Amino acid sequence: MAIVELKNISFSYTPEQEIIHDLSLAFDSGSATAIVGQNGAGKTTTVKLINHLLIPSQGQVLINGHDSRELTTAKVSQQVGYAFQNPDDQIFNNSIRKEIAYGPKENGIKGEALEKKVIQAAELTGLRDFLDEHPYNFPYSLRKFITIASLVAMDPDVYIFDEPTAGQDHISRQRLAGIIKTLKSQGKCIIIITHDMNFVAENFQRVVVLSEHKILRDGTPQEIFTDTDLMTRANIEPPAVLNIANQARLSAVPLTVAELVNAL
Ligand SMILES: Nc1ncnc2c1ncn2[C@@H]1O[C@H](COP(=O)(O)OP(=O)(O)OP(=O)(O)O)[C@@H](O)[C@H]1O
């Protein structure tokens, strides 16, 4: 059974314009999916429908088989963790430790069990040595890891990251890739929204292309990035390694630098 299922979802912010039309999508445990598409395609709206920040006008969102309409927002947020595009929309404590501890503490976890959750989340996200720092002593890009650590401490089944690589340097991107890989290996469901096709090509096996209020394609990066009509229609840039492969007239479809080097 899928851990998240959107069944024939429609949604509008205003009566004049439907943003999502009759969309169906399912996500499994132990999977990582990238949702891509041009600005305004409805990516953020779709994930907000998953975590109950928005309610569909039609259709159903099932979390672990339960209709999210029958769950409270608090209950959904225990199962679906959402890291906003801007970490400053989420961070409000004056130390990284307090920020990470906030969610589990609200759920009644305390003492050693709480400390253990904080340490585990900080270790996974590379924040172990900075727990007593003020979050705003960290640059914007690294504050994203504080919001991710706060989610990890809550141990949800589903993680949604909105534009996680925006403003990240090479080391942070690698750290992020490592976090996604670890969470996936723990059986978590990871969904990201991104414009970063290099990151998608290197780290995801499933790509959902949203455009024109619906899913244009749901497939592997190889399928998506070799479909030039689709990429034009959805305004997607292919990853850099594929551009190089095309210019070198290679028949291979490399998705990583290592694959490109092999093909050359
Ligand atoms: N609160 C809102 N009220 C009215 N319209 C909204 C609201 N939020 C988003 N929209 C509109 O809904 C459409 C889809 O927005 P959404 O943020 O879901 O797109 P997106 O694919 O995530 O875009 P981006 O890549 O730019 O973040 C856009 O036309 C946007 O202007």
Automatic annotation (TrEMBL):
The record's section on InterPro entries has: AAA+_ATPase, ABC_transporter-like_ATP-bd, ABC_transpr_CbiO/EcfA_su, ECF_ABC_transporter_ATP-bd, P-loop_NTPase
What Gene Ontology terms describe what this protein does at the molecular function level?
Answer: ATP binding
Answer whether the UniProt record assigns the keyword Nucleotide-binding to this protein: yes
Q: Which domain of life is it from?
A: Bacteria
Q: Which Gene3D superfamilies match?
A: P-loop containing nucleotide triphosphate hydrolases
Q: Does the keyword Membrane apply?
A: yes
Q: Which keywords fit this entry according to its UniProt record?
A: ATP-binding, Cell membrane, Membrane, Nucleotide-binding, Translocase, Transport
**Domain called ABC transporter: residue spans:** 4-237
Q: Which family does it belong to?
A: Belongs to the ABC transporter superfamily.
- For this entry, the protein name equals Energy-coupling factor ABC transporter ATP-binding protein
What is the originating organism of this protein? Answer: Levilactobacillus tujiorum
